[in-house]
Design goal:
The complex is a heterodimer of chains A (265) and B (521).
Chain A: H1 2-32, H2 40-52, E1 56-65, E2 70-79, E3 83-90, E4 98-102, E5 105-110, E6 115-118, H3 135-138, H4 144-147, E7 148-158, E8 161-170, E9 180-186, E10 192-198, E11 204-215, E12 221-230, E13 236-248, H5 258-262
Chain B: H1 2-13, H2 17-57, E1 60-64, H3 79-92, E2 95-111, H4 121-125, E3 129-137, H5 139-142, H6 157-167, H7 176-188, H8 200-214, H9 227-238, E4 256-262, H10 263-269, E5 276-282, E6 288-299, H11 304-309, E7 310-314, H12 315-321, E8 330-335, H13 341-355, E9 359-363, H14 364-367, H15 369-406, H16 409-417, H17 422-458, E10 460-469, E11 472-478, H18 484-508, H19 514-519
Parallel strand pairs in B: 3-7, 4-6
Antiparallel strand pairs in B: 1-8, 1-9, 2-3, 2-5, 2-8, 4-7, 5-6, 10-11
Helix pairs in contact in B: 1-17, 2-15, 2-17, 2-18, 3-13, 6-7, 7-8, 8-9, 15-18, 17-18
The chains are: A alpha+beta (265), B alpha+beta (521).
């Protein structure tokens, strides 16, 4: 009888220990990660969208692709939420090649064959010009909030900078390719620092790192260097350096036309 | 004495011809059916393997070490390596043919006159583009390793001409009446011939017809309209596919070539022979390569995948466009017997790896393990069927032999009563059974061989054409495959069960009552 009691006591002690461990582990994130005030996540996303895209914008970018040791220059125009035009200006062999997004459709033009081709949805994940950006990225898809549910903001750190991390999960009906995107901004001024892209297995596939912030004429603190690291192919990355950037109230609709796409030759 | 016994046994067999013949027919039929069934099973498996390997897979492939796991244009076999490998394969005694292939992906769309209103995106949207697998081949070498060429839908030169001409209607102020006139003249002059015909004689006629068509076509106020360009374009429509003749199409223009489309792909693009398609693809150094192709053929295989996604073009030209100078991504090898691909690959591997350590030799079983699993499963189920069949045949043969022997119980009783030793009767019974079974097995074997041989050459059409299974095309016209083991196994099985059927009565003879045996009716 005594032995039985001792055995029961031992089981109870073990059970209590397990419960305590679970509570402590559950409680740990609450201790290590500070929850943001309500509405922070939405504000972060709104700010980031407005900062990076605005109502309309145009400019020049230089893209360096580490894998091929190749640099291309391009001009771009964008009209929120779903129109954009990119046209390559250098090197000479690629000059005139363009990509036009109109709504859900992405068109590409190659002056060598004078052919406009619509990119089928099946190829949207293909690399754009051999870079670590995809056709989907270049088309600069619609507002994040249209396609993703915004999670809660939790605190984090990038180097010495305190950050808010906001997880975005795709809405059931959204034709997006990432299982999750995590946006990380500085707490002090919400400038974007990182964007992490997770594949369907929950593994991190790419990381976009923003840096080299400069004040634009309208007061924006804009990152002039974007580095897309390819975590599926270690060592590979693509760097985009902003050469010129101007945010506008609007752009003419005719800018985003196939006629204009072909004008690049 | 033995010889005497043999003579008596043979004589006894034919004393009751009806009984012997009836028994013999069953034996002969069983042997014939077994030989045919085994040959059909072997032929079916060989057909499945050949269908899969001959259409695209090949018996063996030589590739870079990790190309199969992660295909990439950077993982290539250089032109020099292709040449050296050709010498190795030629001297190996294993390969009967080899062909380099260059595979890449791209975006293909049909080149059509643009909408009058360039801003009409709905009109642009109707012009579909499709992702494709472009396979650069050397047609002459490819014919030795695959049956792709045989899947070409027959060329229709007149339709090709009209279609090509029709595409130029908007561009060159050509009307449909003059298209018809041009094509008729070209056809009558023998200028337009299908596929591999002799083009030479009619070429001048084609040039003349093109000149006549294009003369004074260009309005004065259109500086872009060029009569010479018009003539060149229409002369082109007369030409058979240079690519399929093993020639380099448009040698002076890197951005113009010839292409054969899968039938499904052609339907999606609404493209036919004579149309032009534009391909955009990436090179192995990250650039974009765009080029135009004249559609010179349509292939239709039994594989939906191949028909829907594949486009063939001339390998060297494609390699040059991609900046790869004559390289390939795989070298496909054909051997005599695809069932021995693993052994052949093992024999070739050391020679290939000695030449280029970064390459490896893969038999089709490793290239398509799911196909191998499918075939093994099929073989296993056929083996089960064969075992059951053998048991049924065995039971029937043993039964009929037993019954035939039991019928002679009275005869054995008389012989015992006359003083013949039981062992001698048993021995003669076994000998007679052996002679009968062996003789009629040979007869059945001859019949089986004849039927098998006929269907080995003619084939049995199961009426399903080509069907797709585990991603490969299986041709359902099966040829039987005669093998020595199939014949020996069939004869041996029937012989075994025949003798088995005689054992019981032979053993029982020593124990029967002579009186009861004599009274047996």
């Amino acid at each position: 009888m005594l032995g039985l009691f001792a055995e029961r006591n031992k089981t109870l002690r073990w059970f209590r220990a397990v419960i305590l461990a679970v509570v402590m582990l559950h409680g740990l994130p609450a201790v290590a990660q500070e929850a943001a005030p309500p509405g922070t996540a939405g504000a972060v996303i709104d700010y980031m969208e407005n900062l990076m895209r605005g109502q309309a914008s145009e400019g020049e970018l230089e893209m360096y692709i580490k894998r091929w040791d190749r640099t291309i220059r391009m001009r771009f125009w964008e009209l929120y939420p779903d129109k954009s035009l990119v046209r390559l200006v250098a090197p000479a062999e690629d000059a005139g090649v363009g990509s036009l997004k109109l709504g859900k459709d992405l068109w590409s033009y190659n002056p060598k064959v004078d052919q406009v081709q619509k990119i089928p949805p099946s190829l949207m994940l293909d690399s754009w010009m051999g870079s670590d950006f995809t056709n989907d990225d270049i088309s600069r898809s619609s507002s994040i909030k249209l396609d993703y549910d915004v999670g809660e903001a939790i605190s984090g750190k990038v180097g010495d900078v305190k950050t808010w991390r906001v997880a975005l999960k795709p809405k059931p009906s959204s034709p997006v390719v990432w299982e999750k995107i995590v946006v990380e901004v500085a707490q002090e001024d919400k400038r974007p620092l990182r964007q992490e892209y997770y594949d369907e297995k929950g593994k991190i596939a790419r990381v976009m790192i923003f840096s080299d912030y400069k004040k634009l004429s309208d007061g924006r603190n804009y990152p002039y260097l974007w580095k897309m690291e390819n975590h599926q192919e270690p060592g590979r990355y693509t760097e985009v350096r902003v050469k010129k950037m101007e945010f506008l109230e609007s752009l003419p609709e005719k800018t985003f036309s196939i006629r204009n796409l072909k004008r690049g030759r | 004495m033995l010889l005497h016994l043999v003579r008596i046994c043979w004589r006894d067999l034919w004393r009751n011809r009806r009984r012997t013949l009836l028994t013999g027919v069953v034996i002969a039929f069983s042997v014939a059916v077994m030989i045919f069934s085994i040959a059909l099973g072997d032929g079916a498996h060989l057909q499945q393997i050949r269908s899969a390997t001959d259409s695209l897979l090949g018996h063996i492939q030589v590739q870079r070490q990790d190309y199969l796991e992660e295909p990439d244009l950077e993982k290539t076999i250089s032109a020099r390596e292709i040449e050296q490998l050709g010498e190795v394969l030629g001297g190996s005694g294993q390969a009967v043919g080899w062909a380099p292939r260059l595979l890449t992906g791209g975006l293909l769309s049909r080149k059509v006159p643009e909408p009058k209103d360039e801003d009409d995106t709905a009109a642009w949207a109707s012009m579909t583009s499709e992702g494709v697998v472009v396979v650069g081949i050397d047609p002459e070498a490819e014919a030795k390793v695959s049956t792709l060429a045989r899947s070409l839908v027959p060329d229709d030169p007149e339709a090709r001409c009209m279609r090509g001409c029709g595409n130029s209607l908007a561009m060159l102020y050509v009307d449909s009446a003059s298209c018809g006139s041009f094509c008729n003249k070209a056809m009558e002059a023998g200028a337009m011939v299908p596929g591999d015909g002799n083009h030479e004689g009619g070429f001048e006629a084609c040039e003349e017809a093109a000149k006549e068509l294009c003369r004074n076509r260009c309005p004065e106020d259109d500086p872009l309209c060029d009569e010479l360009e018009c003539e060149e374009k229409f002369t082109d429509y007369c030409a058979p596919a240079r690519f399929l003749q093993g020639q380099r199409p448009y040698p002076d223009n890197l951005y113009l070539g010839e292409m054969v489309l899968g039938s499904g792909l052609a339907a999606l693009l609404d493209a036919g022979v004579g149309d032009r398609v534009a391909l955009t693809t990436g090179t192995n150094d990250g650039r974009t390569f765009a080029s135009l192709y004249m559609v010179v053929g349509i292939i239709k295989t039994g594989s939906l995948d191949i028909n829907r996604s594949f486009a063939l073009t001339q390998r060297e030209k494609l390699a040059d466009g991609l900046g790869m100078g004559g390289a390939a991504t795989t070298l496909v090898v054909a051997i005599d017997n695809p069932e021995r691909s693993s052994e052949a690959a093992e024999a070739l591997a050391p020679k290939v790896e000695e030449l280029a350590p970064h390459l490896r030799v893969l038999p089709w079983q490793e290239l398509a393990p799911e196909l191998e699993a499918f075939i093994k499963l099929d073989q296993a189920s056929l083996l089960v069927m064969l075992v059951l069949f053998v048991m049924i045949v065995g039971v029937i043969v043993a039964n009929i032999i037993t019954m035939a022997v039991m019928e002679r119980t009275r005869e054995y009783g008389v012989r015992l009563a006359m003083g013949e030793p039981p062992w001698r009767i048993s021995a003669s019974l076994m000998l007679e059974t052996f002679f009968m079974t062996f003789f009629f097995s040979v007869v059945g074997g001859a019949a089986g061989l004849g039927a098998t041989w006929h269907f080995q050459t003619e084939g049995i059409d199961f009426g399903m054409g080509e069907m797709e299974a585990v991603g490969v095309v299986i041709n359902t016209v099966y040829n039987t495959q005669l093998t020595l083991y199939g014949v020996l196994f069939s004869v041996g099985t029937v012989l075994f069960f025949g003798l088995l059927g005689a054992i019981y009565p032979a053993v029982r003879i020593g124990r029967i009552s002579v009186i009861d045996a004599i009274k047996f009716v």
